[in-house]
């Protein structure tokens, strides 16, 4: 795992954990790992929505949209910091 991926996971893990707890009503480390593994595999956003639909129902699309915004922002931030 490169520095950008490590930074991304470090930033996203707490947010994903919080959102899964909100959506599912309890902590679910397995779902957090599932989402992080899908991100590491560079799955397309729509495929992630489909993968999460059974667990998150109507919230899947909203979750993935917010997640993708964070991924883009954090990836750019890490790239900029790495170039300094």
Describe the structure.
By secondary structure, this protein is mainly α. It has one domain: Up-down Bundle (PWI domain). It is 85% helix and 0% strand. α1 (3-24) packs antiparallel against α2 (29-40), α1 packs antiparallel against α4 (59-83) and α3 (45-56) crosses α4 (59-83). The chain is globular and about 40 Å long. The mean pLDDT is 90.
Give a brief outline of the structure.
The protein has one domain (3-83): Up-down Bundle (PWI domain), CATH 1.20.1390. It is built from four helices and no strands. The chain has helices spanning 3-24, 29-40, 45-56, 59-83.
Essential attributes:
mainly alpha; 84 residues; 0% strand; PWI domain; single chain; 85% helix
- Global shape: globular
Main pleated sheet:
none
CATH domain topology:
PWI domain
Q: How many beta-strand elements?
A: 0
Helical content band = over 70%
Determine and state the CATH class: Mainly Alpha
Provide the succession of SSEs.
Answer: HHHH
Report the end-to-end length measured between terminal Cα atoms: 21 Å
Radius of gyration: 13 Å
Supply the CATH architecture: Up-down Bundle
- Name the average pLDDT: 90
Measured by DSSP, the beta-strand proportion falls in under 5%
Query: For the record, what is the CATH homologous superfamily label?
Result: PWI domain
> Are there runs of 5+ residues with pLDDT below 50, and where?
none
Count of all domains? 1
The number of helices is 4
Structural class: mainly alpha
What is the element layout, followed by pairings?
Elements: H1 3-24, H2 29-40, H3 45-56, H4 59-83
Helix pairs in contact: 1-2, 1-4, 3-4
């Amino acid at each position: 795992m490169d520095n950008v991926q490590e930074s991304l996971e470090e930033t996203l893990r707490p947010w994903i954990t919080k959102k899964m707890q909100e959506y599912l009503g309890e902590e679910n480390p397995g779902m957090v790992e599932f989402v992080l593994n899908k991100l590491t595999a560079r799955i397309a956003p729509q495929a992630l929505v489909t993968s999460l639909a059974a667990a998150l129902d109507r919230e899947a699309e909203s979750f993935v949209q917010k997640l993708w915004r964070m991924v883009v922002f954090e990836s750019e931030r890490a790239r900029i910091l790495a170039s300094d």
